[in-house]
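[09:14] KT: can someone run the structure on this one? pasting the chain below
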Amino acid sequence: MCLLLLFSRFLPPKIHFWQSFFEILSNNTYLWGSTGIISKTITMKSRRLLLSLLAFVVVLTAIAEDFDAIVVNSQQNKWASSNYFVKGINAINDEDLETALDMLEREVRQHPSSGYAVCNLAKCQFMAARNRMLGDIYSEDGGEQEVAAARERGDKEMSGTLPLLDKGIALLPAGDGEALCQAYRLKAAMLSSLENVDSTQVAECYDKAIAVHPCNAAYEDHMGLFFKDDEIVIADALALRKLYPDAPSYVKLLAIMAYRSEDYNQCLELCEEHHAMINSEDQSVIDEEMAALRLIALKSLGRDEEGMNLALHYIEEYDLADAISVYLQMAKNNPDLAEVQLKQRLFADNGDERVWNVMLARVMENKKDYGRALEFLSKVVKVMKEPFLYKEMALCYFMLADTDNALKYIDVATVLNGGEEFLPTRDDILINMGMASKVISEKMVGVELFKGVSGNDVSQRLSLADLLLQEHDYSRAADVMASIIDSVHYAKAYTLYAEALKGLGRTDEAQNYLQKITEIDAFNFSDIVYIVPAYYAVGKKEEALVQVKTMVEGCEKYLQNPEDDVIPSTYYDIAVVYAQMGESDKALEYLEKHFLHDDMPYNFGQIERDWRLDSVRGLPQYKALVEKYKKQWKSNAVSINQ
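[09:31] RB: done, structure tokens below
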């Protein structure tokens, strides 16, 4: 199996250009979170190709799960004409384990010195043991103790097949490197399926497989085991490239590894070499993942203008939707150039004008020229009723202080999209229009306060409880959270419930839930906005300061390099954390940074209600700060008709 096929298994399938186009554009628009209208740029779709390197380990380590993945049946096998052996191999390929066992057992009794038969018999016995174990584990009556016993029993039985495999390997002819390679790979796969096996044993098997028969399968298995070790992966990829100089898949792997190692010049050279290899005969051929990687490398090198020109070429010639994503990233640094380039194509009637209009709208949003962004979006809406377009128009109207139209267009987007995805955006618009009570009443409809709710219901209750806390309605907030608090273990859930309890005077209970937050072993980075105040509240002030420093560093790093994999805390997140820690000056400092640096910071309705800012809301400095930027926002909001 070549590495290219391993990649393609995990990369997104080819889809209609327009479907992919709108997915990319909508994924690079604004996220509306619980802290209000805060703009973050989502990691580009084409970054998924970098995960393909990590993903192929799933295929390689699962080889023992695949019944006919490895068959020791070399052309040099002198027993290949044996009737029992042939029937056994055919049964393996047909997944007929019972027949395979019967035929191979007969073969081994007739020819006990046949390493080929012994190896295949060992494999069949291993598979039979594994199937028995799985049958016991997934039986309807099996409890935890039964499952544990079945695993232990199955592991012992599977381990018992290894001596037979070792015997078969010893019987294989020393000159049949292909068969020996397959046998060592089979042993590695069997070992990987066992409990508590030292990975060095697996590595030794792969090393032996490579030594006796260097080939793509052996090297790829080896890379699958060491996929986190860049040096080993690169060394294996170089060996494969030498073995198969005409195979572009290994040039592709080296290009991905060069990018992963931040050697962008090398990555670019390999991308260009790969392109030359695959289209030497057919100029219309393009590898979409490698084309996207080539663009990303150019961006990483700061060669934005060159990258933008190449991206436009890919869009025009190949309808490459990933190129749109990278182009818009580079256009942020060169909005004037992007405007000129896109208008040239629009006016020259070069390509689909809908694409250019939507891309121009995004460029205008980056320039904070929301009126002109609306002009370009309106042209597309006339011919395409895509919900994403209406959402984008709603955001532009909001930035222009036209909240009536903002609500009108987000309602249209929500209806067109089936009433799901854009509800959080609609909620935020209503809240920032001073209509939070409407959102609360809508969310209360049909909410039954019982335990055992689904994931969507949990999300609904968290959002509702947060809104009730903003209203200082601690009783209803506590009721909403009490129905789910024992079944969810989220930092946000504990925080909301603790705040409600504290508001009801139940401070000891509130403190217990804050303590639970600090005991969570693993949490998402997005939870840090709840983790830090909890540490501070339970007296772990030094740890809280270390964590908030991490938040600040992550935010600053992301602003310098928005392509970083982890989208960090925003300035607003940092502001609310400092406010809850009683650091009023720091809270106001980062709230102002939120207004100055975030692309879409004018969430005044949320800011004026957020219970996390209660400690600073009464300060004259806070009031002056909010009024200053609210006035600036309104003065910048021009009439749509101008």
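[09:33] KT: thanks! The longest helix spans residues 115-137.
[09:34] RB: yep, looked fine to me
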